[in-house]
Amino acid sequence: MHKQNMILRHKLFDRICHWFVVATGLVTFLTGFAFFFPSFQWLGSIAGTPQMARFVHPIAGLMMCLPLMVMLVRYYHHNKWEKNDLTWMLAIKDVMFENEDKIPAIGHYNPGQKVLFRTFVVTSIALTITGIMMWQPYFAPYFEASAIQWAILIHAICAVIMLIFVIVHFWMATWVEGSVAGMLYGYVSRAWCKKHHPNMLNDPELKTNKQEKH
Amino acid sequence: MSAQDIILSSGTSELTPAAQVRRKLSKVAKLFDATKCNGCKACQVSCSEWNDLRAPVGSFQGSYQNPMDLSSECWTLMKYQEVEENNKLNWRFAHSACMHCDDPACLTACSTKGAIVQRANGVVDFDSDKCTGCGYCVSACPFDVPRLDPIDQKAYKCTMCSDRIQVGQEPACVKSCITGALKYGTREDMLFIADLRIKELRKRGYVNAGLYNPEGVGGTGMIMILHDINQPQNYGLPADPKTSVPIKLWQDVVKPLGAAGIIATVAVACLHRITVGRNLVEEDEPAQFDHTHSDKSDKE
């Protein structure tokens, strides 16, 4: 493996953004889980007390959702629907079982990742709006009780959807060896690209470690 | 008060019920007879005295009602509803406090284990020390009773003077009622007394007199005799109070389905991991710049 030939997949700013979202998301999900399933109230203890968890949750939630909107802007162009995407989606079974020869070539992101990205964007917008509506004591007093009740319901549904997609995200990232390293250090090998995102190598803006340094 | 049996507790399910009822306790109730009330506010004052509540002094808002609304420092409020009937202005006095529902929406909506409990005698009580201030009970209550305190951000409401009840006394409001509009006793007794009173009222010409004891919340621990049972809004009471649809969906559908979805996703992920395994890239291959996706498998 030639280190100078590594390909830049995630820029430093995006990596910081991503791991910031992971950190704040962890706090948000663990505290939120404590309210959603009171049997898991002990998870909220990461904030100290249940009262503190209630106070921290909306702030951590905003700190998770707002950088996600930054990532929406930064990654938007990579996440447009492309020609091969439908055939890739139909071949999802081959993807899962690693029948490499049957998987259509895709670019910087595969359609699964695009669906994931869209879900994160939509749910975080919904979570932010409903979260503000139910945020005691600052914003909730301005809303009707029935509006808050629906906000709580939608907030819970979106949180569950987001958590399921977070699990999928974590599972795929750890399954495909090299992804986590790519998100941590920014670079992936040429062979990795060829295997997982072959069309990425056609990107005219492709940067390697060598080009960056010299 | 903890010695009293708890039969319902927020944040628990049928699988993890609250402490079992060991003694069979009769349910208690407060009976408010609006036809006897003269709006003297003794109940309001004695509530404030006994529970040591000191709501800030308000300003005149064009009504004899004061304060204008319930708060964390006002658990019992004499509401002065102005109703026009036959071109005459009538007052409809309403003793406004927690209704102690048999199926309390606040308890259903509460996000914290044991912060809201229902005692074996039917009293719905808040353990404010456990309250996290999420405000779910505030938005859930169809009677708009619980309120968050601006200082400690915890929810408060009428406890039916649980501390007095426990030692065999009646609630402070009942104790101080001068006209006998408020009565306290077992729910059975109160329903019996209410029935007699309503029959008497109907004989005297109040043909629509009736008992406010809404079915939607399983009946209440504060029942009310009204001049006209078809017009509960004249007393500031909802016509058909119940646990709302979104709260029911959230607790009874989204939670179990959500749990199943999360567990199923984790299970599939684990299965995939131990069957398909790791998706490795063979880095030792000469790095050829090949734009086409070769047929050769990259598999190990």
From TrEMBL, chain A:
UniProt xrefs under NCBIfam families: formate-DH-gamm (TIGR01583)
Organism: Shewanella pealeana (strain ATCC 700345 / ANG-SQ1)
Any GO BP annotation: formate oxidation
Name of this chain's protein: Formate dehydrogenase, gamma subunit
Major subcellular site: membrane
Stored InterPro entries: Cyt_b561_bac/Ni-Hgenase, Di-haem_cyt_TM, FDH_cytochrome_b556_subunit, Formate_DH_gsu
Similarity section: Belongs to the formate dehydrogenase gamma subunit family.
Keyword field: Cell membrane, Electron transport, Heme, Iron, Membrane, Metal-binding, Transmembrane, Transmembrane helix, Transport
Subcellular compartments: Cell membrane
Top-level taxon of the source organism: Bacteria
UniProtKB/TrEMBL annotation, chain B:
Residues that bind [4Fe-4S] cluster 3: 98, 101, 106, 141
InterPro entries: 4Fe4S_Fe-S-bd, 4Fe4S_Fe_S_CS, FDH_Electron_Transfer_Unit, Formate_DH_bsu_Proteobacteria, Formate_DH_C_sf, Formate_DH_Fe-S_su, Formate_DH_TM
Source organism superkingdom: Bacteria
Cofactor(s) this protein requires: [4Fe-4S] cluster
GO cellular component term of the entry, any: plasma membrane
Alphabetical keyword list: 4Fe-4S, Cell membrane, Electron transport, Iron, Iron-sulfur, Membrane, Metal-binding, Repeat, Transmembrane, Transport
SUPFAM superfamilies named among the record's database cross-references: 4Fe-4S ferredoxins (SSF54862)
Location (main, coarse): membrane
Ligand binding ([4Fe-4S] cluster 1): 37, 40, 43, 177
Residues of the 4Fe-4S ferredoxin-type domain: 28-58, 122-151
Residues given in the record as [4Fe-4S] cluster 4 binding sites: 110, 131, 134, 137
Protein residues bound to [4Fe-4S] cluster 2: 47, 158, 161, 173
Entry's Gene Ontology molecular function annotations: 4 iron, 4 sulfur cluster binding; metal ion binding
GO biological process assignments: cellular respiration; formate oxidation
Keyword Hydrolase: no
Pfam families in UniProt: Fer4_11 (PF13247), Form-deh_trans (PF09163)
PANTHER family referenced in this protein's UniProt entry, alphabetically: FORMATE DEHYDROGENASE, NITRATE-INDUCIBLE, IRON-SULFUR SUBUNIT (PTHR43545)
Function: The beta chain is an electron transfer unit containing 4 cysteine clusters involved in the formation of iron-sulfur centers.
Protein name: Formate dehydrogenase iron-sulfur subunit
Naturally occurring in which organism (per UniProt): Shewanella pealeana (strain ATCC 700345 / ANG-SQ1)
